[in-house]
Amino acid sequence: MTSTLADIASSVREGRTSAAQLAREALDRAQSLQPRLNACLQIFDSHALEHAAAVDRRIAAGEGHKLPLAGVPVALKDNICLSWGRTTCASRILQDYASPFTATAAQRLIDAGAVVIAKTNLDEFAMGSSTENSAFGPTRNPWDDSRVPGGSSGGSAASVAARIVPVALGSDTGGSIRQPAALCGVVGLKPTYGRVSRYGLVAYASSLDQIGPFATCVRDVALALDVIAGHDPLDSTSTPAAHTAATAEIENPVAPLVIGVPRQARSSANHPAVAQALDNAAALYARLGATLVEVDLPMTDYGIAAYYIVALAEASSNLARFDGVRFGTRAALKPGESLIDLYCRSRADGLGPEVKRRILIGTHALSSGYYDAYYLTALKARRRIKQDFDRAFTDQGCHAILMPAMPEPAFRIGEKTDPLSLYLEDVYTVGVNLAGLPALSFPAGFAENPRLPIGLQLVGPAWSEATLLRVARMFERETDFAAQTPPL
What we know:
Shape: globular
CATH superfamily of the domain at 5-252 and 440-448: Amidase signature (AS) domain
Structural class: alpha/beta
CATH architecture of the domain at 5-252 and 440-448: Alpha-Beta Complex
Number of helices: 15
Strand order of the largest sheet: 1-3-2-4-6-5-10-11-9-7-8
Strand content: 5-15%
CATH topology of the domain at 5-252 and 440-448: Amidase signature (AS) enzymes
Oligomer: single chain
Order of helices and strands: HHEHEHEHEHEEHEHEHHHHEHHEEH
Helix content: 25-40%
């Protein structure tokens, strides 16, 4: 699928194609590429076709004007609940879990006429940067199936990059939308915390998690955001402020435009192709009339440490419910064993090594004698990180900050066996989540030999998604990176 979301929906509403035909094509492509990419954990053949037929009936009844995404096939990361199928979070402990309700963001897509064709693969409980931690096997990058697609929303990014669906939802706790978008050559948006309802998103770190869209172009991400954003009374962290349509002025350049480039973003640790893409993007914006200023984000190097205390402490608390009693697959209790034995075996058998590692670290950080030294210190660092961004936006007048999304292109599956080396992949993304800000990853170049996508990100003040999308669209109009497709 190469048409935009608006074009697809228009063709369905006007009868040039049908939702059923689009669903069948997406299902066929998902099935054909599944053995190669392992992007999907569930493919909803019968349910998707039934839903598509219902969309076609609504259009026949004259309700097409109510369906901005009429017939658009979509995929959802498998930590976003649906009231059909399973919601596994790519974990053995939830392999048979059937949610009784549908997440608000997913329901808003459905209400807009979209057809859910699949749930996508992820790092278990969204804990990872490569989608290698899935209990059901890694997802492979459509540009090179020996390499990772990024994580944790790797299945969603790969599904969009492989043109299985034109739009997919992921979640971003420390970079899990922006990283796979960058490595798969698509556009991915992490909205401001509170912009999109978290109701129905299985929590990893509640103060950091945010649902956001993937698409092949900036305009499609804007349209998807307009559908899923807005207040939700079921989520107490959802902003009551009205959402201003991001598509309204998407083609209008921001002028005058001030873009900040962090000194820390020009690290010697960056892959040469990443460094070149950053320089080229800055030069292009300058040619378009933007003022480029160097900004200082001195807490960048402390972001990883702060994030992996705050996020893991929250994960320790959130994942306590998966004990084989309240939620999760229950281990068999042997004669003479206690309830504690049941908890221990259920969690030991059901959770993967990375999830266990993060729970242990988080529990330690919250334990008596260590709480002040670790967790409270991390919260202080979090505040300082937010202040660094605020200074760039207020004192230096930046509309957006331009920086890498990842320090390198996609690496080989199995290449990074040391957990710390994977954690360091998050260096440019975690600070955004700690500060609660919006950020957009967009295709900005390629590394050669092998040819792999490079993504950059734009970070903006809270609630500035519409501006970020306009700034990214300025770049997209002048380049062809987003239009290029993997050699599948």
